[in-house]
Structures are given as structure tokens and as C-alpha cells.
Amino acid sequence: MKLPSRSQRWWRRGLLLLAMIAALAAAVSWFGRSKPVAVVVAEVTRGRVESTVANTRAGSIEACQRTRLSTISGGRIELLAVKEGDRVKKGQLLMKLWNDDQQAQQALAQAQLETTRRRVAEACTMADAAEREARRQTTLREQGFVSSAREDAARSEADARRGSCAAAQADVRQAQARVEVTRVEQSRTLLRAPFAGTVAKIVGEVGEYSTPSPPGVPTPPAIDLIDDTCLYVKAPLDEVDAPRIRPGQVVRISIDALPRQSFPGRVKRIAPFVSAIEKQARTVDIDVSFDQREAIGALLVGYSADVEVVLEVREQVLRVPAAALGEGNRALVVEGDRLVERRLKTGLANWEHAEVLEGLAAGERVVTSLEREGVKPGARVTVEAAPARAR
Known about the structure:
It is a single chain. Mean pLDDT is 85; it is low at 387-391. The strands form 5 sheets. A 6-stranded antiparallel β-barrel has the order 4-11-15-13-12-16. A 4-stranded antiparallel beta sheet has the order 8-7-5-10, with no helix packed on it. Helix 2 runs antiparallel to helix 3. By secondary structure, the protein is an alpha+beta fold. Helices cover 29% and strands 38% of the residues.
């Protein structure tokens, strides 16, 4: 048997060494490669995209009519005709202060009026009689039975009686005015509902002293009356958004007390001034009306509410979730098992979706979990969940 030559033995050893080195390199490459990053992705689809603005601080539900009532004059509460929560009609008596002295003044004025009216009847009856006598004296003078002096005396008496009648009638009007003054004085101690509504709060009890609010001094009202049949939302928007708001724009209203619901509405009014409650947070208040108030059910004045004003809408446009956009309108697209960075050109956008004008195609998958560690261009990834389609 012929033995291999020395060169052949070296050749075989070299091949074996190369195979061992290749295997070692493959093992190092396999164990040293990066671990895939789990990501959440969303599919690029077509749909509706809106440009919207929302309130900066919580708004609130307000009543179209709400008044905090106090009597014009102060006094001791004699009667509370309602209680909190009662529904009242326009003109209904709510509260009465002690006013016996004013009632006595009115009774006196009414009695004086009756006396004056009787005097009118007496004075005017005598004036009519004197007028008839003057005409009779004129007839007799024309027939030559009495002198002109007698006729003149009768005419003067008739004129005087007529003057007394007119003076008595003036006294009646004065007495009527005095009665009206006492009635007005009594009305200062009565509190009546200026409109139909619900009594929200009553300050004071029978026997306590009720004090009206002097100018510049905030005193709690005696009765807080609300017309809860007409409600709207008042919400503050950032001053930079105010120029884009117009009456009639569509609004979505969400109420904290009614979670996971949205109610349609429209901008009714924009405040003509900027509120500076906080110097670094200047806002403009807007009033928003409900489109279908009766379908919502019972609402309480004071509920906190948020509004989202729809500025512009585009239908069936290419869109991605807003969570997929990074700084500079960059997005990470899953290609195979790697992430590739794309720079996008976007259009309309809100907190939920952004319109894609350039940079993506329908059906591509973009990463929405950009905040996770290791999510960067070139990273190996595994999709954590099936792509969720946008609503």
C-alpha cells in the first residue's frame, strides 16, 4: 500500500484547519448576533383624517339661563315657598321677608284712596247741580225774571264747584300713586322667579336675616335658579387656535360623567376677549350647543366636559396612527425582520391619525411602539401582535 506524500498530508491538515476556523466563526456570529426586539405595528390604510383642536383646560356644562337671586332690601325671612330641587313657574313666589309695616302703610293708603273717591263723588255731584242751576238762572234772565247779577253769581258758583270736582279727582290720582308706592315697597321684600326653572340652592332659613349684595361686595345669593331645559358647554381654547374657530363648526363633546361616549355639537359663540386666568396660559372661551340634547338624557349643570372642534376633514386618504410618527415626521417600517426608517410628507393630522402624502404605501407596516428600548433603524424585530386596523 502506497503512503500519502508529505505535501498531501499538509494539504489535508490545512483543509481541516480551515473548516474548524469557519465553524468557529459561524458559532461566534450565531451567538453574538443581537436579540430581536418585540414591536407593535399598524398597517397603513386609507380612511378619514381630521384636523382638530381641543380645549386646554376642562370645560363645563352651563345653563342658558341661570340667575342668583336676592331681595332688593334686607330683612328677616318670613316665608320660604320653595325648597331645593323644586321646579317653579315664571312669576312664582319663592321667598318673602317680614313686611308687616309696609302692609300697614298700604292699608292706610288704600283707605285714604277710598275716602278721596267718595269726596270726588260728592264734589262732582255738587258741581253738576251747580251747573244745572246756572243754566236755569240764564233761562230766567233771558225771560226777564232775574237780574244779570243773579245769573253771574250762579255761573261763578258752578265754576267753583267744577274746580272742586277736578281737585278731588287729582287727589284720587295722588292717592292711587301712594298705593302704588306702597305696593312697590312691598315688592322689594318679595322674591319671584324671573323664568321657569329649578331651584338649585337656597341660602337662609325662616327667621334668619337675608342681606342683599351691596355693590362690589360678593354676598351669597338667597336663591340660585337654573333653567336646565337649555344647556351648553363652555370650554377654553388656546389663544393661538382662536383665529381658526368659526360659529357653526362641528364639535365632538365628551363628558366625564358619561365615559366612552361622544356627542355631536356646534360652535355657538366665541368670546370677544382673551382670558388671562394664568399669565402663561391665555385662553379664549367658546360656547358649544348640543345637536341632539334630548337624546343624551339628564345632565347636571357643572359637569366637566371636553370639546374637540373639527376644522377640516378629508375622506379616504392614506393615513398612519399618530403614534407611529417620530421626530421630523420619521417612521420605522418593518421590511422582513428589520426596521427601515422613512421620512414622510404629511398633511392633516390630529392626536389619532396623520395623513400621508409621500413616503409610504397602503399595506406597509409601521411601528407604533417607538418608545421601547432597541427600536431603531436596522434593528431586528419580531411583531408582538397582529396589525390592528384603524377605525
